[in-house]
Amino acid sequence: MKTPLFELLFVVMPIVEIIGDLLEAEEQYIVQQSNCATTYAAGLAAGIASKFPHADVYTPGARAARGTMGGDIPGTIAVLGGAACSVEDDRKLRGVINIFGQFTPGKPRRLRQTTPLEYGSIVAPPDVVDDAAQRMEWFEAGLREIAQLDGLESLAFPFQIGCGLAGGDWRVYHRALDKFSDDMGSRSVQVSLYKLPQASWPCVDCRSMASTSGGQFWKKMWYCNACYKTY
């Protein structure tokens, strides 16, 4: 019996949550959020750059190759390694997709300024605010660009992408990833989230760090024990 067309068009593929090291992921591509301005990697990006040097988006050589010495464009992506990489010699290397989802490193700005945003020698375009709302717009734009890549099979995201050093709200980012995963279902592209075992994560309410013994998941969100008791 043939599957009705409407069922093929509306395949829902929930996110697979994996306890493990993202750097050891077997998915086709690792996806991380990157900023547009720095010349060095930090946090997860430093781990990826150390294990997969070709995937370091922050080196002057990498920026020169992309033609972005004046800073990358927020909302775009860089595919380094993997079949969709623009550098033919790198297509057999580990696939890493970088979403330029923030202009500067660190937490989003809270106040709009009348002067252009600057970071070192990099001056942002006039429309760049780099607040939480704009960062989410850029993240979603990056997801849309990923969805346009040919030959996608599977994607591995870090738990709380955009919410560690970048200070985003995981509830908002998770909703975006849920929608993205559902949208990719029609192409049978699996989306996974990797969480390090025995790690500490920020509580979605109070933002304090809580280890696996000091917090728990509820409705796919991480809460410290004190905040969890209020629900």
From TrEMBL:
Superkingdom in the source lineage: Eukaryota
Keywords in alphabetical order, please.
Answer: Signal
Q: Does the keyword S-adenosyl-L-methionine apply?
A: no
Q: Which residues cross the membrane?
A: none
Q: Does the keyword Signal apply?
A: yes
Q: Which residues form the signal peptide?
A: 1-20
Question: InterPro entries attached here?
Answer: ADP-ribose_metab_enzymes, Macro_dom-like
Write out the GO biological process terms.
Answer: peptidyl-glutamate ADP-deribosylation
Q: What is this protein called?
A: Macro domain-containing protein
**Organism whose genome encodes this protein:** Noctiluca scintillans (Sea sparkle)
